[in-house]
Amino acid sequence: MGSMQRTIDWADGAVVIIDQTALPREFRLLRLETVDELISAIQRLAVRGAPALGAAGALGVALSALRHGGDVGAVEADAERVARARPTAVNLGWGVRRALAKLPGGPESVLAEAKAVLDEDERTNRQASANAAELILARCPRRPLRLLTHCNAGRLATVGWGTALGVVWHLHEAGQIEYVLADETRPLLQGSRLTAWELAEAGVPYRVLPDSAAASAIARGMVDCVVVGADRIAANGDVANKIGTYPLALAADRHGVPFVVVAPQSTVDAELPDGAGIVLEERADAEVTSAGGTPVAPAGAKAFNPAFDVTPAELVLAVVTEHGRFP
Ligand SMILES: CSC[C@@H](O)[C@@H](O)C(=O)COP(=O)(O)O
């Protein structure tokens, strides 16, 4: 049910998203009619994942342009607020800039550009993940393959199809997947809530594991390849992705397991020479000091809660986009 629904779309003058805070308990859609509602949905991760945030950025500018018409200053101010809703995924600002560039043509051309961003997304991710699937088949001799992934880089992180999980869909169609290990992805559990839900829907054999068990799984020879998405890729190939990605890359390197990153070209920040310049979002202490809304740490406990980390290019076998290997 709901499997053909886009993660984020435009319908009857509003942005419609799959509410990712409700999954897997409930599949429900949210209608966002204002820029403020969209920004709030981005910040509480009701819509999330770098490519989906690119679409959200473009649609946010469309919402504003349709509301403010010829008031360029008002639309530019809204665009700036949307672009700053979260700092790490470069796609958010990319989507905003693409739509904003069409403002001189009027609100309808802004909306048309936002819709083009959405339409391109699935095509691009299918191609990027097909390229990565080919590379993995060439580099990993064991059949069928046992993959490990982190966070959610599935259709829920994009408008449709997905990036790292897109690789799984291609390989599963070809009968080449034995199983997928899905890191639960502390603290917000995108792995156990979202990736597991997608894998179950698609009928792919999987197990959820604590993030802290991933290095052991790699060391015990249970993983042929680690495949993840990205939030921002610097010009030298350093990769920012969900917190916990860097330790996976270290473990994979130590045990000679290929570590592959799959992303659309829009996730490359060509102006950034290396990963040192990437702003890593820090989120609220309560996400760590509570579990499911119940406090688990002593009252007043402080947390270190970065949402992302940076994996240096030297630990990455390949960054794969729709154009092939990057750079
Ligand atoms: C194709 S999604 C790639 C990344 O955006 C994904 O792995 C990730 O880190 C998402 O983080 P999130 O905080 O859930 O937005």
Molecular structure report:
The chain is of the alpha/beta class. The chain has 2 domains: 114 residues, translation initiation factor eif-2b, domain 1 (Four Helix Bundle (Hemerythrin (Met), subunit A), Up-down Bundle); 204 residues, 3-Layer(aba) Sandwich (Rossmann fold). The strands form 4 sheets. Strands 6-5-4-7-10-15-16 form a 7-stranded mixed beta sheet. A 4-stranded mixed beta sheet has the order 11-8-9-14, covered by helices on one side. Strand 4, helix 6 and strand 5 form a beta-alpha-beta unit. Helix 2 packs antiparallel against helix 5. It starts with 7 loop residues before the first strand and ends with a strand. GO terms for molecular function: S-methyl-5-thioribose-1-phosphate isomerase activity. This is Methylthioribose-1-phosphate isomerase. Belongs to the EIF-2B alpha/beta/delta subunits family. MtnA subfamily. It catalyses: 5-(methylsulfanyl)-alpha-D-ribose 1-phosphate = 5-(methylsulfanyl)-D-ribulose 1-phosphate.
Summarize, please.
It catalyses: 5-(methylsulfanyl)-alpha-D-ribose 1-phosphate = 5-(methylsulfanyl)-D-ribulose 1-phosphate. The protein has helices at 35-43, 50-68, 72-83, 90-100, 107-139, 164-173, 190-202, 214-219, 245-254, 286-289, and strands at 8-11, 14-18, 29-32, 145-149, 177-183, 206-209, 225-228, 232-234, 239-242, 259-262, 268-269, 290-291, 294-295, 308-311, 318-321, 324-326.
